[in-house]
């Protein structure tokens, strides 16, 4: 699989897992993995999993807009840069105001993964996530 | 200098150079450097410099909102993730419409650098840039 296809496949797999079975994300990280989430630095698969599972929203859907990929210079590793939107249920007061249970808000996000090969697959060594407030 | 301070200093230097003396950016890249600019892949310091100098706007100002940094696993190298805004002169028809020469537009941007040490300084090995359209 070429790097562009591989990185797109990885990103789709990651966010499908995030949106439908978030605890399973732990399998994509290792002990040395790092996540910076909105400026907060977290290290190690267990701590990263705790952070992702403890986020204040349970229902969410990621919409991927762009995926860019480059070899990082570390043997067969890849930097994957993603932009998109995170769709969340509207705030409670918004729901009450509108009386529409379907109301969702979309927040632009950008993020990157540094994927490093191990045991015939890839794990996430670096992960940085930011919401793009206007 | 700690990695967070170093990466912020680098980003400020890079965008100050971009906004005031764009041809000098060539000194921050090397032959193996890669730039992906809005999905277009460019390789090598000279080609990257040609691309950056050939962008359709001459006047611009970058406003940095966030800078995140992690060690990439490659000896003393750093991944630097940036969000911010690119301020450009308004479109000509907008200027005519408003008759305000000061009119500027701001576009949210996100980007990353992978900085690799060489000869006592850092050069940009990976560079990915995206405009974040709403």
UniProtKB/TrEMBL annotation, chains A, B:
InterPro entries: NTF2, NTF2-like_dom_sf, NTF2_dom, Nuclear_transport_factor_2_euk
Keywords: Cytoplasm, Membrane, Nucleus, Protein transport, Transmembrane, Transmembrane helix, Transport
Gene3D superfamilies: 3.10.450.50
Chief location: cytoplasm
Superkingdom of this protein's organism: Eukaryota
Classification via Pfam families: NTF2 (PF02136)
Spans traversing the lipid bilayer: 103-125
Localization (cell): Cytoplasm; Nucleus
Boundaries of every NTF2 domain copy: 6-131
One Gene Ontology biological process: nucleocytoplasmic transport
Its job: Has a role in nuclear-cytoplasmic transport of proteins and mRNAs.
Name listed for the protein in its UniProt record: NTF2-related export protein
């Amino acid at each position: 699989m070429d790097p562009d296809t591989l990185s797109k496949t990885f990103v789709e797999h990651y966010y499908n897992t995030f949106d439908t079975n978030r605890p399973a994300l732990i399998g994509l990280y290792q002990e040395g993995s790092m996540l910076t989430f909105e400026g907060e630095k977290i290290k190690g698969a267990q701590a990263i999993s705790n952070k992702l599972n403890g986020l204040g929203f349970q229902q969410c859907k990621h919409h991927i807009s762009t995926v860019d990929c480059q070899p990082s210079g570390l043997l067969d590793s890849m930097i994957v840069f993603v932009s998109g939107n995170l769709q969340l249920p509207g705030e409670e007061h918004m729901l009450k105001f509108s009386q529409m249970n379907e109301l969702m808000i979309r927040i632009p996000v950008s993020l990157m993964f540094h994927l490093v090969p191990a045991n015939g697959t890839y794990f996430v060594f670096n992960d940085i996530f930011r919401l793009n407030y206007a």
